[in-house]
Amino acid sequence: AFEKGKVTAIVGQSGGGKTTVINMILGLFAPTSGRITVDGIPMQELHHEPWLRKIGFVSQEPFTYHSTAADNILLGRSGYYLESIIEAARIANAHDFISEMPQGYDTVVGERGMKLSGGQQQRIAIARAVLEKPEILIFDEATSSLDTVSERLVQDAINNVSKNRTVIIIAHRLSTISYADKIIVLDNGRIAEEGNHQELLKRQGHYSRLVGSS
Question: What is the number of other CB atoms lying within 10 angstroms of the CB of residue 11?
Fold first, then answer.
């Protein structure tokens, strides 16, 4: 179960089923057995588009295009004032670096965000995800390609957005999810273990081996 106000991390070896779980939550795949429910309602009974509007998604490779920082947070959506964009950027730990750019939120960030570091692009992607105030946030290995300093800044942003939301993290670097309320360890498509960081380490099982090899 993914609980509101809690951070749940999903870990496991490549091919263990992490991405499949996310695709099922997004309604892209249906489970071959069992069922997925949202507040007790089966997923197949939900309308797809309203369900997706409740979810903010941040991928491993954030998309930025040749436009302003504000436009990259909006991503074509209308009806938002600058105050809402700034609020999302503050939550995502992006406001300070955007404000320091030559034209602030009106600064053109370049094709594929060439004027931004990887960590800055990722924080803009987080601001984009929280702009609509989603109830659920999914981070798909959002820090795996970052250096240590950028990773820490992005991790701080994830901590900020985790308040009062259901947060699901697909983790590559296990050091980034030790704070999670619950860690689910997948092995060949099945749940091998679940618990918090300390509980799982004490078991000396799958999770402990993953930490030891990371």
Answer: 26
